[in-house]
Amino acid sequence: MLLDTNIIIYSCKPDGRTLAAWTGHPNAAVASVIWVESLGYKGIQVQEERAIREVLSQVMTCPLDEEIIQRAIQLRQQKGMKLGDAIIAATALEYGVPLVTRNDGDFKHISGLHIINPFAPGAA
Question: How confident is the model over 22-27, as a mean pLDDT?
Fold first, then answer.
């Protein structure tokens, strides 16, 4: 499964332990752009950066390869997606894994992409 940026960030919040089943799963992975999105914003606090780096170090990072780049280009051309979202969706599609995200609305228009929202009512 591919974890979206919001799952990584929320997992590092005080009540983020509820996401441990996702971030600690042996098949958990992130797209390489997740590192930039989750750590690359102005004003990140030292403790938050440390917590995010800890979570990211425990999951596989999927490299940005030619197939993902081409798929992301197609998604941006066809769907007008933001760059980060296009790379994340392309990575999940190329690896054939579900995308775990709270922002399912950003991705629901992508055919063939299986989305899991752990925040949705009834989600386990």
Answer: 95
On whether residue 122 sits in a domain, the answer given is no
Distances (CA, A) of 57 to 34, 36, 37, 122: 12, 14, 15, 29
CA distance 17 to 13: 8
Q: Which distant-in-sequence residues (6+ apart) come within 8 Å of 90 by Cβ?
A: 68, 69, 71, 72, 74, 75
Q: Which two tokens stand for residue 47?
A: 């403790």
For residue 30, the cross-strand partners are 61
- Is 17 inside any structural domain? yes
In a domain, 95, yes or no: yes
Within the chain, what is the greatest distance between any pair of CA atoms? 39
CATH number of the domain enclosing 56: 3.40.50.1010
pTM of the full structure: 0.94
> Mean pLDDT across the chain, nearest whole number?
95
